[in-house]
Amino acid sequence: MPVLTWLIPIAGGAAVLYALWLAQDVLRRDPGTPQMQEIGGMIFEGAMAFLTRQYGTIAIFATITAVIIGLVVGGVSDGVKEIVLKDGQADYGGVVVGQWTEGLMTGIAFLVGAACSGLAGFIGMYISVKSNLRTAAAAQRSLKDAITVSLRGGAVSGFLVVALSLLGVSGIFAVYSNLLGNPPAIAPFLIVGFGFGASFVALFAQLGGGIYTKAADVGADLVGKVEAGIPEDDPRNAAVVADLVGDNVGDCAGRGADLFESMSAENIGAMILGVAIYTVTGKIEWIIFPLVLRSFGVLATIVGLSSVPFFTREGSSQNPMTPLNYGFYVVSVLSVIGLGIATKSLMGDAWYWFFFCGIVGILTGIAFVYITQYYTAGSWRPVKEIADASRTGPATNIIIGTAVGFETTALTAVAIGAALVSSFILGSHADVQGVPAFTTGIFGTAVATMGMLMSAAYILAMDTFGPITDNAGGITEFSGAPESARHITDSLDAVGNTTKALTKGYAVASAGLAAFLLFSAYLDKVKERLGRPLTGELPIDLSNVDVFVGALLGVMLVFLFSSLAIRSVGKVGGAIIEEVRRQFRDDPGIMAGTSRPNYARAVDITARAALRAMVAPGVLAVGMPVVTGLVFRYVVADLHTGDVKDSGWLAVAGLLMVGTIGGIILATFLNNSGGAWDNAKKYIEAGEQTDEAGHVLGKGTPTHAAAVVGDTVGDPFKDTAGPALHVLVKLLSTITLVLAPLFIAT
Amino acid sequence: MPVLTWLIPIAGGAAVLYALWLAQDVLRRDPGTPQMQEIGGMIFEGAMAFLTRQYGTIAIFATITAVIIGLVVGGVSDGVKEIVLKDGQADYGGVVVGQWTEGLMTGIAFLVGAACSGLAGFIGMYISVKSNLRTAAAAQRSLKDAITVSLRGGAVSGFLVVALSLLGVSGIFAVYSNLLGNPPAIAPFLIVGFGFGASFVALFAQLGGGIYTKAADVGADLVGKVEAGIPEDDPRNAAVVADLVGDNVGDCAGRGADLFESMSAENIGAMILGVAIYTVTGKIEWIIFPLVLRSFGVLATIVGLSSVPFFTREGSSQNPMTPLNYGFYVVSVLSVIGLGIATKSLMGDAWYWFFFCGIVGILTGIAFVYITQYYTAGSWRPVKEIADASRTGPATNIIIGTAVGFETTALTAVAIGAALVSSFILGSHADVQGVPAFTTGIFGTAVATMGMLMSAAYILAMDTFGPITDNAGGITEFSGAPESARHITDSLDAVGNTTKALTKGYAVASAGLAAFLLFSAYLDKVKERLGRPLTGELPIDLSNVDVFVGALLGVMLVFLFSSLAIRSVGKVGGAIIEEVRRQFRDDPGIMAGTSRPNYARAVDITARAALRAMVAPGVLAVGMPVVTGLVFRYVVADLHTGDVKDSGWLAVAGLLMVGTIGGIILATFLNNSGGAWDNAKKYIEAGEQTDEAGHVLGKGTPTHAAAVVGDTVGDPFKDTAGPALHVLVKLLSTITLVLAPLFIAT
C-alpha cells in the first residue's frame, strides 16, 4: 500500500469533522423572531415530512431492486474471474468469486450506496432548513453575517456528500478486497452496485424533489398572483409553505444526491479502468489513485472555503459573488498542487502526462463557470436578446429563448469535446510499462474527470447556498421583517441564482467528461464476461444496425423522459391549484386575513402528487435500457442469420453512449434556456430594458408580462427536467454496468 | 441490360407528359374575377421575383462550390479504381478514371443535380401560383371543382420533381457509364456529385423559403392584427402580399427541392450499395433496381391520382380528406404489385426477402401517416391536452406543447428502429451467391427506403395542395369574394394543413430509413479510398474518442443549425414590421383605405432579408462537417501516438451518423409540436374547448389568446427549422460522400 493511501481516511475524517463543526456553528446561532421561527418550523416540518415519505418510498423500491439485482447477477453471471497478466495483456484466470456470492455482494453494495446517498441528502437538508431561518435572522443584522451563515449551511451539505462518497467507496472497496481476501483487481467489479444504488436514489430524489419544487412554485404563483391577485409569498396563500419547502427538497436534497452519485460512479469507473493498468504494472496505485486525488480535493476545499471570510469586505458595496470567486480560485490552485503530488507519487515516470490530463479537467471546470455565466447572466448578449424580444410579446420571447437555448449547446459540446480529445491524447502518450496507448488514453480522460471533480464540495456548497438564501428571503417576507433585511436577502438571492446555474453547467460538464470513462468501464465489464483481454479494444460499430438503432432509442429516451418530467410539473401543479382554490372557497376568512390557511394539507397533497408523478419517468429510465437489452438479446439476435449473438450488449452500448450525448445536449438546452428566461425577467424588473423611445419597460408592462411567461416555461426546464437528465445519463452508465451480464449471450 | 430497364425512360416520360397535361388543364381554366387576377398577379410577380433572386444567389454559390469540389476531388483523390471480384470479395483493380477526370465529372454532376433541383422547384412554383388563382375562382362555383384544380396543380409539382429525379439520375448514370465507356460498377461513384448538388440547392431553397414564409407570416400578423388591429389578409396591410408569396416559396418550392434531393440521394446511395452485389454476382440488375422500382412507383401514382375524382362525391358533405386517402390506398396497392414484379424479375431466387423489405418500407410510410395525424390532429389526446392547458395561460400552453412535442419522438424512433432492424434482418437472410449477409442486409434497408418512396409523387402532390388552398383562401378574402367561396376554401385549407403535416412525417421517416443506406454508401467510398473490399465491414467504433467527439459535435450541429434558422425568422420578421410601420406613418391614406400600400416594396425587403438570413445556417451546415474532418485529419491525428491516421474520416462518420439521429429526433419535435400548437388553436376556434362550468372558450377569450402564442411559437419550429433539418441530415450524407477523400490520410 502506498503511503498516500492513508490520506483517504484522513481527508474523509477531516471533511466529516469540518462539516460537524460548521453544523454546530450554524445551529447555535440566533434563530430569529418568533414569527420567523413559526414559519421556519412549518418549513422544517413540511420538508421532513416530504423527505421521510419520499425516502420511505425510495427505500421500498431500492430494497426490491437490490433483491432483483442480486438474483439477476447471481443467476446470469458465471462468477468473477481473477485478472492476470498473459502475454503482456490483462487477461483472465480462474473464477475467484462464485456467481451467487457476486450477486449477494452486488446487491449489498447497491443497498449501501443507496443508504449513503439517502443519508447525505437527509442530513444536508436538515442543516439547510435550519440555516434558512438563521440566515433570515442574520439578514436583520448584516450582509456579512448572512453570507457566513448561508455559506456554512451549504458547506455542511457539500462536505457530507463528498465525505460519504469518499468513505463509502473506499470503505466498501476495503471490505470487499482486504477484509474478504479478494484480489484488489476484482474488487472494483464487485462494488459497481454501490454506484447503481447511488444513481437509483439520486434519480428518484432529483425527480421527486424537482417535480415538487416547480409544481409548488408554478401552482402558488398561478393561484395566488394570477387568480387571487395577492403578492408572492403572501401568508394567505395556502401553497406558500409548500413553495418554500420545495426549494429545499428540490435544490438541496436533489442536487446533493446528484453529485453524490456522480462522484461515486466516477470513482468506481476510474478504479475499474485502473485495474487493467494494475494488472500489467503490478502497481495498486492505479486503482486507488482516484480516491487519493479526491482526498486532495477535499483538503483543498476545506482551505478554500475557510478563506472566503478573508475576502469579504465588511459593510462595503462588494458584490457577494466576489469572495466566492476568490475562494474558488484558492481551491483551484491547491487542487493543482494536490494533483501534482498525487500524480508524481503514484504514477511513475510518465506522471506528468496524467498531471496535464488533470489540469485539462480543472480548466474545463473553470471554463464552464464562465460559459454558463455568459449565457444566463444579464450582462451579456443572450439574456439581453431575450429581454428585447419580450417587447413584441410572449411568443417572440419564447422563440428567441429557444434559439438561445439551442445555441448554448455549441460551446458546451466544443468544450467537452476538446477536453475529451486532449486528455485522451495526453494519456495515450504516457508510456506505462507496455500498457497499450488506448488504455492509458482512456485513463487520461478519467484523470481529467477526477481533476475537475476535486472542487465538487465547493461547488456543492455554493449550490446549496442558493436555496438557503432563497428561503431566507421567503421567511423574511412571510414574517413581516423590515425592508432592510429583505434587501439583504434579495441581493443574496441574486447571487444564489448565479451559483445554482453554475452548478448545473458543472454537472453537465462532469457528465460529459465522465461519459467516456463510464462506458469504458461498461466495455471492460463486457470484456470480462466475453473473456477478452481488458487491455484490448472492443469496437462498438455504429454501422451495425443494432448499435445504430440502440443509439436512436437512446436519444429518444432522453426526449421522452424529459417529456414525462415536464408534464408531471403541470399535473402536480394542477393538484395544488385545486386545493388552494378549495380552501379559499370553503373558508372566506382566509382571504380576509382572519383565519389561517391549512398549509400542512397543501404540503401533504403536493408531496403525494409529486411522489406519484416521479414513478413514471423513473420506471422509464430504469426500464428502457433493460427492455432494450433483453429484446435485442432474445428477439433480434435470434432473427439474425448465422451465429450473431452480440445484439443485446451492442444495442445497449449504442443506447448508453449516444443517449449520454443526447442527454448532455438536451440538458444544456433545458438548463440554459430556463436560466436565461429567468434572468431576462430579472433584467426587465431591474429596469434595464427600454422601448424605442427610451422609456423604461419595468414591472407591470406587457413586456414584463411576456418575460414572466418565459420564466414560467423555463422553470420545469431548468429545475425539473434538466437536472433529472444529469442523473439519468449516469444512471444509464451504472445500470448497464451492473446488469451487463444480462445482455450478453454466451 | 434487363428488359425492365426500358421502364425507366417510359415512366419518366409518362410522368412528364402527365404533368404537362395537368398543367395545361389547370392553365386553361377560369382565372377568376378582375380583383382576383389583380392580387393573383401581385403574388405571381412577388414569388417570381423572389425565386429569380434566390436561385440567382444559389446559382452563384453552386458554381463556386462546383469548382471547389472539382479541384478538391481532383486534387486529393487518386482516381477511381475498377471494382473486381477477388477471393469472392468485391475488391479493386487498376485505376480506370484519372483523378482530374473524376474531379471534373463530380463537379459537372453537382451542377446538373443543382440545375435539375432548381428547375423542379421553379416550374412547380410557377404552376402552383397559377393554380392558387384558379382554385379561388373554382371555389366560387363548387367544392369538387376547387379540389380538382388544387390537386392537379399540386400534382404537376409532384410529378415533375419525381420525373426530373428519375431522368436526371438515370440520364447521368447512362452518360457516365455507357456513353463514356466506364464500367457500370464505378459509375455510381462518379455521380455522387449529383446528389450533393441536389442537397445543396435544397438546403438553401428550404432555408430561404422557410425563413421568408414564416417571417412574412409572423411580421404581417404582429403589425396588422396586433398593432394596427385590422383583420388577417386585410388589403391595407402592406405585408399581406409578402405573406401570400411566402406560402408558395416556402411550402411549394422548398418542399419540392427537399423531396427531389431525398429521392436523388437515396437512388444514388442504393446504386452504390448495389455495386458490391453486382461485382460478386455479375448482374447489373442490382445497380439499376432502385431506378426500376422508382419507375413502378411513378406509374402507380399516375393511376392513383387519376382515381381521386372517382372517390369524390359531388355536392355531398364528404370530408375532402376521404378521396385523397382512397387515392393513397390505390397507390399503395399498386406499389406492392410493382414491387413484386421488380424484385421477382431482377433479384433472382432470393427475391422474396427483398420483396418483404419493400413491404416494410411501404408499411412504414403508412404508419407515419397515422402517427403524425394522432399527434397533430384535433380529435386525439395530444392536441386536446394543449388546448386544455391554454386555459391557465400561455406558459402552460407552451410547457404542455413542449412535453407533447418531446413525446412524439418516441413512436417515431420506435417505428424507424423497427423498420431498420426488420429490413436489415430480412435482407441479410437473402442468400445471393455468396454475398455476405451484412451486405445484403444493408441492401435490404435500401429496398425498404425505395419501397417507401414509391408513393413520393402522391405525397408531394398532397403537400403542394396545402399552400395552393391556403393561398386560394387569401385571394378569396383579399378580393372580397362571397362568403360561400370563403367557406369552401376554409374547408380545403384545413385538409391542406393535415396533408402538410403528413408530408413532414413522411420526410422524417424517409430520412431515418435512408440514413443507414446513405452512410453505408459513405463507408463504401471510404473503403474504396482505403483499398478495403466493398463486401467487408468497416467498424465505426463509438468507444474511439474521435468518433465519440464527432458524434457529440453532430448532435450539437443540429441544435445550433436550428437556433440560427429560428432566430432568422425573428430578424427578418422585424425588418417587415419596420417597413409596414413606415408605410402607415408616411401615408395615412393607407389606413383610411384611400391609397394602396406599396406591396412590392414589402415583398422585396422580405426577400432581401430572407436571402441574407439563409447564409449563416447554410454555411454552418456545409462548413461544419468539412472543418471537423479537416481538424481531425490534420491536427488531432497528428497528436495521436503512433501511426493513427484515421481520425479524420472517423470523426466525420460519427458526426454524420449521430448527427442524423439527432436531426431526426429534433425535427420530429419541432414539426409535431408546431403542428399540435397550430391545431390546438384551431380546436379552440372551432369552439370545442370549454371551461369547468361548460362555457365555450372560443375566439376572443384569454384561452384563445394563449393558444395563439403557442401557434406563433410553433410557426418557425414546424415551417422553418424542422423542414430545414430534413435537408440538413441528407446534405450531411451527400457532402461527406463527395468529400470523403479529403478526410482520409493515406
Structure in words:
The structure is a homodimer of 746-residue chains. With 746 residues, chain A is an all-alpha fold. Helix content of chain A is 80%, strand content 2%. Chain A contains 20 helices and two strands. Chain A has helices at residues 7-27, 34-76, 99-139, 143-179, 187-190, 192-228, 240-281, 285-311, 321-346, 351-376, 381-389, 394-429, 437-452, 456-478, 483-530, 545-586, 589-592, 599-639, 647-685, 702-739; strands spanning 80-86, 89-97. In chain A, strands 1-2 form a two-stranded antiparallel sheet. Chain A is globular. The first copy, chain A, starts with 6 loop residues before the first helix and ends in a 7-residue tail after the last helix. At the A-B interface, α6, α12, α13, α15 and α16 of A face α6, α12, α13, α15 and α16 of B.
